[in-house]
Amino acid sequence: MPAQPRVHAIDSPYAWRMTVIGFVTCFFVFGIVYSFGAFFKPLAEEFGANRAGTSTIFAITAAVYNALGFASGWLSDRCGPRRVMLVGALAMGAGLCATAVAPTLGVAYLTYGLGVGVGVAFTYIPALALVGGWFARRRNTAMGLAVSGTGVGTLLLVPLVAAMIGWCGWRQSYVLMGIVAMLALGSCAMLAEAAPPSPVSTMAQRNHHLIRSADFARLYLAFVLASISIYVPFVYLPDFAESRGVSTVAAAALVGFVGGASIVGRLGLGPIADRVGIFPIFKASLLMLAGSFAIWPLAHSYATLVLFAVVMGAAYGGMVSLSPTLAAELFGVEDLGTTLGALYSSSAISALAGPPLVGYAIDHGGSYLWAAAMGGGAGLIGFCILIPLRSSETLAPVLLPVK
């Protein structure tokens, strides 16, 4: 008789392999995306564009991957993560390589915005749903470990990319990044395996109703505002630092510090949330994110810029790591990819509105104080919107016995 395939259980040692896949996916996806700040000045000089025009490349990219998150999550839930992630790997590599030969800024909007945007959407959301589906008891910890790949990737890849641009130019750098992204993310896709079926939950019949609930609307709007706070430093912090006389590599390293500090938030807040509760910790992270922008106007030295990057990064990392578990607690784990995709589509709005509006304000106001004011103000309003949000027994998943 042919050997029967081994069946792995949720929360088993095999599940941690999926966490590693999630980590590596986040490492390359956001290590590459958040290196955009290192390309900001070379792109602006190459195409003769102002800040608003150059930042629109990132805005389109973020809008695309957040808007397509719902579709990628739905496809991952129904077709499995492997095929969806393979599409994302190919799109990411092709988009970066095509941007390397873009003759105009308009073409870069298309190649980078669509290629990298689709690449992120079709790898990141399926990877999160993959990890979330393999865990029940240790979901906070597993999610924290997986999304910490974003922080590690930002910490290591952004300064490396800045040095690579200085060595071979921005066009050749995009080619190298495209090849690496396609190989690394393609390998993750081939190793991804959907979780075994979990016990049926009454939430499966109520997800659509809950997504239309007041709690979902409140969380969605808060995410729109919080994402503006997150995007502003990734786009403008290196350029601001260079305007203060900081070298190109050291300015790009600030984004790396954001990523490094986010690792602390991603890994440290999950266990705390397990004990204290996810709702107060998530709200505290958002308040800390908003408050970090008070440091920006005081940044008269590189050390102060590093302080801002560390505080902002720790808060942002905590929010990102806790948001999938927050969604799972509110709306259940069934079709988690679809739920996360719907929730993260909120960031498409902030991506299209935030960086270009901030760039316009800087160009016409002549001061980076606009970046600090708009970033901090958006985060503070988002925190106020979330104050009423709390756990409710009526929203908790009720597991039914397996027949």
What is the element layout, followed by pairings?
Elements (H helix, E strand, L loop, with lengths): L12 H21 L2 H12 L3 H17 L1 H11 L1 H19 L5 H29 L5 H30 L1 H22 L15 H5 L2 H30 L4 H29 L1 H15 L9 H30 L4 H9 L1 H20 L3 H18 L17
Word description of this protein:
This protein is mainly alpha-helical and 403 residues long. The chain has a single domain, classed as Growth Hormone, Chain: A. The chain has 16 helices and no strands. The longest helix has 30 residues. It is globular, with a radius of gyration of 20 Å. It starts with 12 loop residues before the first helix and ends in a 17-residue tail after the last helix.
CATH topology: Growth Hormone, Chain: A
* CATH class category: Mainly Alpha
- Beta-strand share of residues: under 5%
Overall 3D form: globular
Structural category: mainly alpha
Largest sheet: none
Helix content bin: over 70%
Number of strands: 0
One letter per element, helices H and strands E, the order comes to: HHHHHHHHHHHHHHHH
- Determine the number of helices (DSSP H or I, runs of at least 4 residues): 16
Characteristic key phrases:
single chain, mainly alpha, 0% strand, Growth Hormone, Chain: A, 79% helix
